[in-house]
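Subgroup meeting minutes
Present: P.N., E.W., G.H.
Scribe: E.W.

1. P.N. recapped why we're keeping a running log of single-chain structure predictions: easier to compare across weeks, and new members can see raw inputs and outputs side by side.
2. G.H. added today's entry (182 aa).
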Amino acid sequence: MDQQQTFNALLDKSKEYFSEDYKFPRKKLLTSLIYLDEALSMNFKCNKSSISEAYFLRGKLRLRLHNLEKSIEDFNMAIKTDENNFLFFKYRGMAKSFLNKLKEAIEDYDYAIKLNPNDPELFIFKGHTENDLGNFSTAINNFDNAIKKLKTAREDSIIPEILKLFSITNYKRNLINNTYFN
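Output recorded in log:
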């Protein structure tokens, strides 16, 4: 087995132990991290898309495990290998936001929006971050953009999108009330 095949096998094995489900056992996430660490220790001779995918996955894992500084390092490495993937900027923005690096998070969300202006979550995350900075009208504009994007959602994803729309609308209503009546 050559290095690329070994790398891919380790990457695939790490995916078996990774889930977006927040109730997923920590032990499995840590197992996935071990496989990714091993794969990335040999990345120098592997193709760029495999490397960026591995760094991105490890960054997401570290974000889930609240190792925020390390997750940002992984997202930085993923961006180095592919600066046109909006997800890398989206997740790095999330990590920066959790670290209260709000202006840096907004820069990442802005760049991700430039790469993919149709992702409503980007506007939601940016809206929450603008709100945290006290930029209420900008936050409201971002929530409005998210609502517009959600209203054009595909039919097969309409239920989760309606729930997001309801949540944003309520958040926006509370934001407006707190801004104008306090």
